[in-house]
Amino acid sequence: MTPQDILSLSAMPPANPSYPRGPYRFLNREYLIITYETDLEAIRAIVPEPLEPDGSGQVHYEWIAMPDSSGFGSYHESDLVIPCTFRGEPVNYTAMMFLNDEPPISAGREIWGFPKRWGEPRLEVRADTLTGTLDYAGERVAMGTITYKYQDRMAPDPTKRGAHLRKTSVNLKIIPCVTGGTRIAELVAYNLTDIHMHFHFSGATRLHLIPHINAPVADLPVLRVIEGRHFKADLTLPYGRVIHDYLSPTGASELAREKQQSSRGLPAASALASPAALRRRA
Question: Among 220, 227, 46, which Cα is nearest to 144's?
Answer without folding.
Answer: 227
